[in-house]
């Protein structure tokens, strides 16, 4: 981004992060709702998936990624990961009180409002299901309804690989969804940001008899409300820019942008060094991204 064109905090980017490319489902909705906003997306593909990792690791990863985004000027941070929200959202808000955070929780509340059978199935990672945030939402919102929580390991890996409807993906979906249907579920909650990319495949299994619910649009609307409340909406006079960064191989993120968003994007390389997120590839000279994403000269990556 060209710093000479920046006019104030409102011109700073929205920070978004996930364990991998699943958060691009949130980016897709942000681009629709807030086309004038700049975005800085980080996918921690070096550590993906988060779903089976210990809580302390997830907290450490999310804390450092948030620090990185704030150092780059993020005016709000969207935690585009149900697993991180389940175990680390409260910690992040406490640690960075000056930065608004938008978290995710499986959309149980709207699902129980629209179910006709009274049975709702939730596809999510084991860590999300075990998290206190999710348990509290189910307890508060599902009175008189039956909510069946279905751990769904493997689906995140399939989306990361770009396999949205291959035989292995379809077999996993059938394994997880069939017991929910057999139990009478007529509404399925997609409780992971990776899962909206599997909607066409899920539809092949459940057709139109089952309602699918995910929180992507709601997260984008909540982000817009926070920007309005804080006076941080960007003006149309300044061209927006989207930066996509990964701690994994940049070509994997580039593939995901084309496969999942249908658009190319600028991909920036990051890597982990002693628990810190560092710009560039290990051992190579890279351009450091500073406040608002503009370059500040070459640096030697540790």
What can you tell me about this protein's structure?
- The protein has eleven helices and 13 strands.
- It is α/β, with parallel strands linked by helices and 302 residues long.
- It folds into two domains: 7-104 and 218-300, Rossmann fold; 108-214, Rossmann fold (3-Layer(aba) Sandwich), CATH 3.40.50.1860.
- Strand 10 (266-273) and strand 11 (276-279) form a beta hairpin.
- The radius of gyration is 19 Å and the shape is globular.
Summarize this entry quickly.
This protein has 302 residues and is an alpha/beta fold.
Radius of gyration: 19 Å
Classify the secondary structure makeup into a structural class. alpha/beta
Oligomer designation: single chain
CATH architecture of the largest domain: 3-Layer(aba) Sandwich
Shape: globular
Record the strand order, biggest sheet.
4-3-1-2-9-10-11
Q: Roughly how many Å apart are the termini? A: 25 Å
Q: Output the CATH topology of the largest domain.
A: Rossmann fold
Number of domains: 2
Fold topology:
Blueprint: E1 14-18, H1 24-33, E2 39-43, H2 55-71, E3 76-79, H3 82-95, E4 101-102, H4 108-114, E5 119-124, H5 126-130, H6 132-141, E6 146-151, H7 155-160, H8 167-182, E7 187-190, H9 199-206, E8 211-213, H10 216-229, E9 242-246, H11 250-261, E10 266-273, E11 276-279, E12 285-289, E13 295-300
Parallel strand pairs: 1-2, 1-3, 2-9, 3-4, 5-6, 5-7, 7-8, 9-10
Antiparallel strand pairs: 10-11, 12-13
Helix pairs in contact: 1-10, 2-3
Please tag this protein with its features:
Rossmann fold, seven-stranded mixed sheet, disordered N terminus, 302 residues, alpha/beta
């Amino acid at each position: 981004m060209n710093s000479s064109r920046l006019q104030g905090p409102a011109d700073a980017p929205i920070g978004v992060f996930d364990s991998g490319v699943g958060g691009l489902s949130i980016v897709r909705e942000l681009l629709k709702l807030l086309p004038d906003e700049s975005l800085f997306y980080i996918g921690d593909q070096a550590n993906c998936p988060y779903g089976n990792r210990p809580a302390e690791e997830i907290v450490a990863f999310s804390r450092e990624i948030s620090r990185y985004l704030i150092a780059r000027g993020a005016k709000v941070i969207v935690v585009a990961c149900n697993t991180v929200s389940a175990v680390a959202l409260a910690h992040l808000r406490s640690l960075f009180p000056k930065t608004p955070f938008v978290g995710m929780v499986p959309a149980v509340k709207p699902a129980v409002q629209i179910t006709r059978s009274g049975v709702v199935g939730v596809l999510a990672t084991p860590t999300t299901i075990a998290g206190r945030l999710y348990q509290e939402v189910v307890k508060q919102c599902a009175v008189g309804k039956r909510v069946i929580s279905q751990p769904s390991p493997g689906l995140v890996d399939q989306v990361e690989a770009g396999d949205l409807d291959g035989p292995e993906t379809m077999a996993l979906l059938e394994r997880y969804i069939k017991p929910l249907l057999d139990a009478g579920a007529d509404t399925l909650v997609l409780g992971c940001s990776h899962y909206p990319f599997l909607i066409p495949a899920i539809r092949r299994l459940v057709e139109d008899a089952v309602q699918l619910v995910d929180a992507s649009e709601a997260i984008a609307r909540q982000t817009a409300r926070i920007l309005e409340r804080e006076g941080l909406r960007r003006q149309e006079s300044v061209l927006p820019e989207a930066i996509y960064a990964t701690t994994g191989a940049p070509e994997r993120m580039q593939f995901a942008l084309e496969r999942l968003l249908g658009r190319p994007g600028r991909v920036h390389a990051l890597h982990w060094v002693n628990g810190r997120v560092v710009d560039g590839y290990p051992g190579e000279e890279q351009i450091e991204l500073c406040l608002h994403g503009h370059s500040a000269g070459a640096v030697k990556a540790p």
